[in-house]
């Protein structure tokens, strides 16, 4: 996989085939990407509160959110994007499948970790994604400027201010910590692979193949582990549907949409906003008072994201 380029793109509201890469700059398409990124972060911020409130096995929740998303995308993908899917190309198809496998690994490691270690520690370790993204870009020949490193570190610091990171010594908790860390690494691979595929493929075609692969892998994991795939009450199914719409279709799908224009570094750093976002959602919906550090942490994360964006713009100038 070559290092993804940070490019801007014309608006792609319908998920149609994007235009060729245009040097990043203050163009309308880039402003639209930031708007969609904000919607995506709001969507993924619903993930943890909804999962916490859903009485179903973690792997089953992960399977259904992807399977339902594929069901929603199927009419559009198989009708309007049928020709693109047929001529997607072996490389783009293989990378899309790989992204689906990595996304399944992310879900398969992070969701169980929430029951093995503290939610705060799991969240902090899982949201190390931008660190791994920046490191992989560096290894692939991309030269992130010092400002980008500083912004990434500042944003991660904001998550630590909010959640803390108290690594436990118990065997079960330590295993949960390692799973959460692995989930953060897997998320970085997912963002990087998506950025590469989105250079040539539309959002709809990519997400259809990616989510379909993720659903198949998670279905196999559910069958092997014995996770119940049904028998839930109506309220549980409604929460799974809400999770699919908010976190999967609006969250992950819009992240896949904007990663081509904003680049993997900016996109993965913005995902850190999920942590304070989830805290605020939990406060409003579940009545959980946000910690005193929530608001300053949000400011620190936003400052770090601003530095990453500034570094990207300076490099593209």
TrEMBL record:
UniProt KW Transmembrane helix keyword: yes
Record-annotated membrane-spanning stretches: 34-56, 62-80, 92-111, 117-139, 146-165, 171-193, 205-229, 235-255, 267-286, 292-311
Record key words, sorted: Membrane, Transmembrane, Transmembrane helix
Pfam families reported for this sequence: EamA
Polar residues bias: start-end ranges: 1-10
Coiled coil regions, renumbered to chain: none
Domain of life: Bacteria
Disordered: annotated span: 1-23
Domain EamA span(s) in chain numbering: 35-163, 175-309
PANTHER family per UniProt: ACYL-MALONYL CONDENSING ENZYME-RELATED (PTHR22911), EAMA DOMAIN-CONTAINING PROTEIN (PTHR22911:SF76)
Family: Belongs to the EamA transporter family.
Designated name of the protein: DMT family transporter
Source organism (scientific name): Streptomyces polygonati
